[in-house]
Write a structure and sequence with these properties.
By secondary structure, this protein is an alpha/beta fold.
Length: about 625
């Protein structure tokens, strides 16, 4: 990461410079650590340029001219989601920066980093990757500017974008460039996107598969039905076994996206996670890195997710097909962790995108190769899906017997519809792997909203809750509880749907500490709904809470029990015609009269943001502060 370290190694050049918007942590939960180690194990000299000053290109010259390429990533998150809340306010902390400091990476970091690499060493190939580049590889809706933006390829001027998980592609790129191939020769790789020059020939097939042309940027940026249709086509071509290459014209220039890469094998995954990670931040850091503190004692056992939730980017980035490590590889990592002098004895999480999809896959590979289903579990669990929890149960049993390990927690979200298929799994989980609270994500109570999310109905959560209470008593731990997560302002969720959710929470005694507010991330199906007001697969209209005022009311309803939310909840109930829920009855959400804490909170806000109002304006408080 420094010139001094180059000197210590006796290097007078590096092969690859990986530029990242995150602090450099040599832990397999961080993409740069995996990519760097994968290249290193094949003999390549890798430098990590972490959170560089982007105002000029000087830091891009730190290691000299890289022999092969610059690898560019905004970091583990899209930089805009990293920087801003759903209300478009600047976040108070960057979890991937030392000390949680903000502003150590620019907005739209991929653009700035690629441009600086070009300035520093013209002619060196620039390869962009990571979540930000992956999810912006085609024309996409950008929540923060409220516009449809063109492919990030065109604005970044990267030679290639590698989308999805990058270990195989980055190694192939290094090998082929080392052998003297040009970066243009790499356009026949899977999982890459590239821009054609105006005079270049548009391909007609990829590996004997047809090429599908999407509605152009000009069409999707002006016609919501065309945007919805482009989204439908893109998400229909995500299975690597049957996906076509996609082309989208931006004026006379075409962006080409080759089919996704095939899932890696178990032996390949084992090799990746068996590499000699230190599991530590770079020693130059003097302040803790929040994201590292959270995952330092966790162990990844699988990747991918077949849930297909429309608001989630995991399936788009890691793929629908589950890729699992072997039991031996996982136990080897746990043994090393148990021997570490810095290890507390508690594994904070053993899981992945979900806690209980380990080694689950389609039982008919011939059908899997043809399948275009968006979710293997929605609207029902596919009868061909292997749902055996046996391998996971055995792994959990062996994990807690590893020397040096006192406790193994499961902190990844449990997929409730799958878990209910195995009482043995639920007993194992309740008896040994929960610290009193288990996080689950029913997300909503409204059937229409849940359908748009591709999530099970609320009855699924209720039945899981009953079974969980039963098994916790059976294993002698009756004081363990579920912590359900819910989302406000998701497409389809109007005030009536949120009031229904608030009533569900009241009936069941749930009082969420945190509110998840829907953020339209690039590429997601739910983001298409938010932008267009259409379900891309049916083209039916979908209600959207677009105004910040509407979103504020939905958030308040999720925490109707907080005195400071009283006036927003009352406003929501009045707008929805549900004043029957205001009063002293047992079914009421709020009282007739505002509690003192609500009045105090309202006056506090008014004193911070005073502005003049017309005399007699509705909602005016004595003293002239507006409280609508």
């Amino acid at each position: 990461m420094t010139q001094a370290e180059m000197v210590q190694r006796g290097w007078d050049y590096v092969d690859v410079v990986i530029v990242t918007g995150d602090a450099y942590v040599d832990h397999p939960s961080f993409a740069m650590a995996i990519l760097g180690r994968v290249l290193e194990t094949q003999g390549y000299r890798v430098a990590i340029l972490s959170q560089p000053q982007w105002q000029n290109c000087e830091e891009w010259k730190r290691f000299g001219r890289p022999r092969l390429f610059f690898g560019i990533s905004a970091g583990n998150m899209d930089s805009m989601i990293n920087h801003y809340t759903a209300n478009k306010k600047v976040r108070n902390e960057d979890a991937y920066s030392p000390g949680g400091k903000i502003a150590l990476r620019p907005d739209r970091a991929t653009l700035a980093y690629c441009q600086r690499a070009r300035e520093a060493y013209p002619g060196v190939p620039v390869i962009a990757g990571g979540v930000e580049a992956s999810l912006r590889r085609l024309a996409h809706y950008d929540y923060w500017s409220d516009t449809v933006k063109r492919s990030i390829l065109l604005d970044s001027k990267a030679d290639l974008i590698v989308y999805g998980m990058g270990e195989k592609p980055i190694l192939e790129i290094a090998q082929r460039l080392s052998q003297g191939e040009s970066v243009k020769n790499l356009r026949n790789m899977r999982a890459v996107a590239y821009a054609l020059g105006a005079s270049e020939t548009v391909p007609t097939e990829f590996d004997e598969k047809s090429v599908v042309t999407l509605p152009s940027f000009e069409k999707v940026s002006t016609d919501r039905f065309q945007f919805a249709e482009a989204t439908r086509i893109i998400h229909t071509h995500t299975n690597p076994f049957n996906a076509a290459a996609l082309i989208q014209f931006h004026g006379k220039q075409a962006v080409v996206v080759n089919p996704p890469d095939f899932p890696i094998s178990q032996s390949q995954m084992d090799k990746i996670y068996d590499l000699p990670y230190t599991r530590q931040p770079h020693p130059s850091y003097r302040e803790p890195i929040p994201a590292y503190q959270m995952i330092k004692d966790s162990v990844t056992i699988m990747r991918g997710c077949f849930g297909g939730c429309t608001f989630c980017s995991i399936t788009a980035h890691q793929g629908k097909i589950i890729q699992s490590r072997s039991e031996n590889s996982i136990l080897k990592e746990l043994n090393q962790l148990g021997k570490s002098s810095q290890f507390s004895g508690v594994v904070s999480d053993i899981g992945g995108p979900t806690a209980n999809m380990y080694q689950m896959r389609c039982t008919r590979p011939d059908i899997e190769a043809k399948c275009r289903r968006q979710s293997c579990v929605d609207p029902t669990i596919c009868k061909l899906l292997g749902t055996d929890h046996g391998p996971l149960i055995e792994l959990m049993k062996k994990a807690r017997k590893v020397p040096g390990i006192r406790k193994v927690f499961v902190a990844s979200g449990v997929r409730m519809d799958l878990a209910q298929l195995s009482e043995d799994y639920m007993k194992e989980l309740a008896a040994h792997h929960i610290g009193g609270l288990l996080k689950v994500a029913p997300e909503h109570s409204d059937k229409r909203v849940l359908s748009l999310m591709k999530k099970p109905t609320i009855e699924n959560f209720e039945s899981f809750d009953e079974k969980f209470k039963k098994v916790t008593k059976e294993v002698g731990k009756p004081k363990q509880y579920l912590v359900p997560y819910f989302i406000a302002s998701h497409p389809g969720s109007d005030l009536n749907a949120m009031i229904d959710l608030a009533l569900f929470l009241k009936r069941n005694g749930y009082k969420p500490d945190q509110v998840q507010d829907f953020i339209p991330a690039p590429f997601d199906v739910a983001t298409c709904m938010y932008h267009t007001g259409l379900d891309p697969f049916t083209k039916k209209e979908v209600f959207i809470a677009k105004h910040l005022r509407d979103r504020k009311l939905q958030r308040a309803l999720l925490q109707f029990f907080k005195p400071e939310n009283y006036f927003e909840v009352r406003k929501a109930l009045e707008l929805a015609g549900r004043t029957d829920l205001i009063g002293s009855g047992c079914d009421a959400l709020i009282a007739d009269r505002a509690p003192k804490q609500a009045i105090h909170a309202r006056r506090e806000r008014a004193s911070r943001f005073p502005f003049p109002i017309k005399k007699g304006a509705e909602g005016a408080e004595p003293g002239g502060s507006f409280v609508g």
